[in-house]
Design goal:
Layout lengths: L7 H13 L4 H14 L1 H10 L1 H8 L3 H7 L11 E4 L6 H6 L10 E5 L15 H15 L6 E7 L5 H4 L15 H17 L4 E4 L4 H11 L5 E3 H21 L8 E4 L3 H16 L4 H5 L2 E5 L2 E2 L9 H4 L20 H8 L3 E4 L9 H10 L4 E4 L11 H7 L5 E4 L6 E3 L2 E3 L2 E2 L6 H11 L6 H12 L18 H18 L10 H8 L12
Parallel strand pairs: 1-3, 2-3, 2-4, 4-5, 6-7, 6-9, 9-10, 10-11, 11-14
Antiparallel strand pairs: 7-8, 12-13
The protein binds nicotinamide-adenine-dinucleotide, (2S)-2-hydroxybutanedioic acid and magnesium ion (MG).
Nicotinamide-adenine-dinucleotide (NAD) binds next to helix 11, helix 12 and strand 7.
Length: about 525
């Protein structure tokens, strides 16, 4: 080795300078991934020191592009691969890691059927698990050595991958039905037996599997679906913040969800539950939710509605006089009829929130909450600057991607990042610190309230959500609230006297360990 002996800070400064030499975010992603593979402490040091700048590089939106090119650019495996063709190998695949029952806090698994909004990516989807874990470690100090990324390779229907000679996954159509269910059951069984203390995080599954797996297993395993629960909770945080401006309660809201899949219906469920908690009956609350999917407004005369949409289908009779185009009731018509106080986009339909739609929303109520949440950037329903301009500064906006502050009519608007990354790291840490047997609805709500409690959104242009730069502190606050709620909900298995201290102590810092002295 060269003679110089450097500190971690000096090494990190060199890496950061090297990073400046690249021109595209994908190149930066690859550089950081190689650093991740070479020196994990140094990688996290650079990442945590420049979190606002580098989160969009290691995570959304760049991770979407990295996934598309993953086989082409393959470097090194950072995950456990479980093949649908070799379910009998699930246990050995984990055992090969040599980790004991007390060694693992967290697994992130994806079957890559709905990566962000870019569809099915087979084994290339590995990096969504890797990226989510990097955010857990950088934002909430979950020890990276105590985490495992998992890819479930169920085949892929993505022709581009099947025809790509470089593709590294199973070259057959996606396997569904009994064989798929067997793989999921085996994963849950093995992972929870080998690592009984670990939280099992599910990411970017297709809508029907995401919901089914969560509903069937929520009571049996320590399981969390980020796209449903994490997203639902960050949206709750944004809405709680927005209601501080409008001085309303959940019972006053009218919710339109555009894109009623995993994330959209997950949010509808959490906001519906909050409406019930604020005094509405189940039925009254349902009557305040409108789902729109590919076939327009979801109504109860539609055949083959998936179960997660049925609950909110509007009676056909109620909308029989509404305008239709090609038989469908459009987003614009729904907005004009309903005058939503909250409009959410989780459709992947880029630019669906047109000027006409946003103007209609702003005509309907004084300060509408507008959340175009589809990722990555090329899927977003509307850019925040447009939503602010078209609503004449009235809309209260958050989006899934990071956006720089901008001026409108003499005011600077700061747009919060309504991405589950602002919430799940703290939720995970709180779950781990409390040893919670399950992630309860109460814990999700506590996380949402803790996130919202960190901002004052009342000034015009203020953000609805905390700044990513404060994510580490914000995650610690969320973790304390979640662990406390776990105790109140009777699911905590560890009850430290001083929760704040326990959370701080549990947070891993990127520093080199002391070498033992001889
Ligand atoms: N900001 C966040 O934290 C966050 C979290 C989860 C998901 N998302 C984003 O939300 C989007 C959806 O993710 P998902 O996991 O729910 O996917 P999904 O496939 O489960 O749901 C998408 C839904 O939108 C519908 N849709 C597609 N095109 C449409 C159109 N033109 N009009 C109306 N509806 C249409 C689909 O039929 C489907 O029901 C993705 O872009 C994802 O990145 C964001
Ligand atoms: O990964 C993200 O950026 C958020 C979310 O989980 C998504 O699927 O879009
Ligand atoms: Mg996701």
């Amino acid at each position: 080795m060269p003679s110089a002996v450097e500190t971690l800070d000096e090494q990190a400064a060199r890496c950061y300078r090297q990073l400046q030499g690249y021109t595209t975010d994908l190149e930066r992603y690859i550089y950081l991934d190689q650093l991740h593979n070479r020196n994990e402490v140094l990688y996290y040091k650079v990442l945590t020191d420049h979190l606002t700048e580098l989160l969009p590089v290691v995570y959304d939106p760049t991770v979407g592009e990295a996934i598309e090119k993953w086989s082409r650019d393959y470097r090194r495996s950072r995950a456990v691969y479980l093949s649908i063709d070799r379910i009998e190998d699930v246990r050995t695949s984990f055992e090969e890691l040599g980790l004991g029952p007390d060694d693992v806090d967290l697994l992130v698994v994806s079957d890559a059927e709905e990566i962000l909004g870019i569809g099915v990516w087979g084994v290339n989807g590995t990096d969504i698990s890797v990226g989510k874990l990097a955010v857990y470690s950088a934002a909430a100090g979950i020890h990276p050595g105590r985490t495992i990324a998992v890819n479930l390779d169920c085949g892929t229907n993505n022709e581009q991958l099947l025809n790509d000679p470089a593709y590294l996954g199973n070259r057959h159509a996606r396997v569904r039905g009994k064989q798929y269910d067997k793989l999921i059951a085996e994963y849950l069984k093995v992972a929870s037996e080998l690592y009984p203390k670990a939280l099992l995080h599910f990411e970017d599954f297709g809508p029907s599997n995401a919901r089914r797996i969560l509903v069937d297993n929520a009571k049996k395993y320590r399981i969390f679906n980020d796209d449903m629960q994490g997203t639902g909770a960050i949206v709750m945080a944004a809405v709680i913040s927005g209601m501080k401006v409008t001085k309303q309660s959940f019972a006053d809201q009218r919710l339109v969800v555009f894109g009623a899949g995993t994330a959209g219906t997950g949010m509808a469920d959490q906001i519906h539950a909050a409406m019930v908690r604020s005094g509405l009956s189940e039925k009254e609350a349902r009557a305040r939710v409108w789902l729109i999917d590919k076939q327009g407004l979801v109504t109860d005369d539609m055949s083959d509605l998936p179960d997660y949409q049925q609950a909110y289908a509007r009676p056909a009779a109620e909308v029989k006089d509404w305008d239709r185009h090609d038989g469908e009731i459009s987003l614009l018509t729904v907005v004009q009829q309903v005058k939503p106080s909250i409009l959410i986009g989780t459709s992947t339909d880029h630019n669906a929130f047109t000027q006409e739609v946003i103007e209609a929303v702003a005509d309907g109520v004084e300060r509408p909450i507008v959340l175009p949440l589809s990722n990555p950037t090329e899927k977003i329903e509307a850019m925040p600057q447009d939503v602010i301009t078209w609503s004449k500064g009235k809309a209260l906006v958050a989006v899934g991607i990071p956006v720089k502050p901008f001026d409108y009519d003499g005011t600077t608007f700061t747009i919060g990042q309504g991405n589950n990354a602002l919430l799940y790291p703290g939720l995970g840490l709180g779950t781990i610190v409390s040893g919670a047997k399950h992630v309860t609805d109460g814990m999700l709500l506590a996380a949402a309230e803790a996130v919202a409690g960190q901002v004052d959104p009342t000034a015009l242009g203020a953000s609805l959500l905390p700044d990513v730069a404060n994510l580490r502190a914000s995650s610690a606050t969320v973790a304390v609230a979640v662990a406390k709620q776990a105790q109140e909900d009777g699911v905590a298995t560890v009850t430290p006297d001083n929760l704040v201290r326990a959370v701080q102590d549990a947070m891993w810092q990127p520093v080199y360990p002391e070498l033992p002295k001889h």
